[in-house]
Specification:
The protein is mainly alpha-helical. The chain contains four helices and no strands. The protein has one domain (17-81).
């Protein structure tokens, strides 16, 4: 039986453009903040999560207004645990 799903055979093994773009953005972020990530890994990972370190302490989120979203996320996470 032949099944045609509308995707050319040569594209079956390739990720979609969105995945490729996300991978590229992630690699760029890692390169720009490699030192911050290394510092957390070797010195801070027992005291705080990577998210806390990067977003609150390393300056990913520049303003207090931006950091408020972390507090909201924390409240949602706590409710989900219950």
């Amino acid at each position: 039986m032949k099944v045609d799903i509308g995707i050319p055979h040569e594209l079956w093994g390739k990720p979609p453009a969105e995945v490729t773009q996300l991978k590229s953005q992630c690699e760029s972020l890692l390169e720009r903040h490699e030192e911050d990530i290394e510092h957390w890994y070797f010195h801070r990972q027992r005291e705080e999560t990577l998210e806390e370190h990067l977003c609150r302490n390393a300056g990913f989120l520049k303003t207090e207004e931006d950091r408020k979203c972390l507090d909201v996320k924390g409240e949602v996470d706590k409710k989900e645990e219950l």
